[in-house]
Write a structure and sequence with these properties.
The chain is mainly beta and about 60 residues long. The chain has a domain of about 30 residues. About 0% of the residues lie in helices and about 25% in strands. A three-stranded antiparallel sheet has the order 2-1-3, with no helix packed on it. β1 and β2 form a beta hairpin. The mean pLDDT is about 80. It binds zinc ion.
């Protein structure tokens, strides 16, 4: 199930909402109850190359 991140433009708080379907209505701010919510793009932490340049050495 996708988790969408929302940010309240009223108080500025951000929260996550678990969506079962993609047709879920926009939630209200759990902090102030405002409907001025902006959808944020969730950031997926992809496993990439580390900062250290120690890759797999192909020893022949
Ligand atoms: Zn709010």
């Amino acid at each position: 199930m996708p988790i969408f991140e929302y940010r309240c433009t009223e108080c500025g708080c951000n929260f996550e909402k678990l969506h079962k379907t993609t047709t879920e209505p926009k939630p209200a701010c759990p902090d102030c109850g405002s409907w001025e919510i902006q959808k944020e793009f969730s950031t997926f932490s992809s496993v990439g190359p580390s900062t250290s340049g120690t890759g797999c050495n192909s020893g022949g």
